[in-house]
Amino acid sequence: MWTTINAFLKTVDNFVWGVPLMVLILCGGILLTVRLGVLQMRRLPLALKWMIKNEEGGKGEISSFAALCTALSATIGTGNIVGVATAVCAGGPGALFWMIVAAFFGMATKFSEGLLAIKYRVVDKDGHSLGGPFYYIEQGMGSKWKWLAKIFAFFGVCVGLFGIGTFTQVNSIASAVKNFFDPDMAHTVTVLGNDYSIATVIAGILLTVFVGLVVIGGIKRISKVSEVVVPFMAVLYVVLCLIIVFTNIKAVPGAFAEIISSAFNGSALAGGVMGSMIVAMQKGVARGIFSNESGLGSAPIAAAAARTKDPVRQGLVSMTGTFIDTIVICTMTGLSIVIAGSWLDPKLEGVAITMDAFQKGLP
Fold first, then answer.
1. pLDDT of residue 26
2. b/e string for 230-239 if b means 16 or more Cβ within 10 A?
């Protein structure tokens, strides 16, 4: 039964993240980049400045920085640790190159999402700011497109409940806890006919409690927690990756050469040159979008609550999320994995690849 379910999910995953969607995402980002005059390069310094400088007198429930941290809280973590590892393992080091390319064009997409979220947001009778794709589809494209907004809202809920919003994060955290405290499954408990490590069960219960305490408080409590946790988590993670890079500085040029070479020549693990190049592109783009969520429509929901009166300003602030998440943090992760050579071990998968890279790379 489980084999059949896994085969079905793999088929759906290959279809959803196949070449057509990869081309659509990249073409959308390229189109917006051209129309906006390569905004992600021209205005990145200003965006980084506005990221930490809150606007005075704007309408909204939370600061722009809090909105950014709320969006980043859903991206920094699983996508950076597991997403990069699986992309490099499946598509070779070249997947990291295509991940960065997708993120560069994705910055234009994220800018557009943040801008539209503010431009077409509405305020309900309780004073809550509401926005996101389902609002700017209807408000911007017209009421005749309301059906499309409803479809997006429905699939958005499904993704949040059964996809990247919950299952992947919980599985990755629980697996990391089990691998650290009980790697040999020495202490297990039977739940619904399946044996689980006690460490896994405890991790799941604690996650449920902590997430419930935060989420039940609404957007304001979520943003307050995110403002503290996300910057600390991001800075600590980057520092650890930089330690790996600087303590293995002689291996860095070779790692970069392997990443770029594999992006166009393919990886021996992935097959022929053209086929492996397509695999590298597919895995890199897919995991990049999974990590930074550019174009998925989740970040604009948080951006709509930002205390601002300038849609362009919030668009620029939102754009920094993709830059920080993928171009900075994912690059650090991928570089650490390539330097340590953990992606070559067939016994490792998912979060175990990144953990192995840190164990080998840290002095």
1. 83
2. bbebbeebbe
Report residue 123 as tokens. 């305020």
Of 197, 156, 153, 191, the closest CA to residue 178 belongs to 197
C-alpha 302: how far from chain center: 15
CA distance 68 to 242: 24
Length of the chain in residues, anyone?
363
If one counts every other C-beta atom within 10 angstroms of the C-beta of residue 69, the result is 26
Residue 34: which pLDDT band, with cuts at 50, 70 and 90? very high
Mean pLDDT of the chain: 81
Inter-residue contact 72 to 283 (CB < 8 Å): no
* Cα-to-chain-centroid distance, residue 62: 22
Nearest-CA neighbor of 314 among 126, 140, 74, 58?
Answer: 58
- Find all residues with CB under 8 Å of 49, minimum gap 6, and list them: none
CB atoms within 10 A of CB 214: 16
Residue 268's pLDDT band, with cuts at 50, 70 and 90, is very low
Q: How confident is the model at residue 267 (pLDDT cuts 50, 70, 90)?
A: low
Whose CA is closest to 95, among 264, 272, 237? 264
- Which H or E element spans position 246? helix 218-247
* φ, ψ (nearest 5 deg) of residue 202: -65, -45
Helices 84-91, 273-292: axis angle to 10 degrees equals: 170
Q: Specify the pTM.
A: 0.81
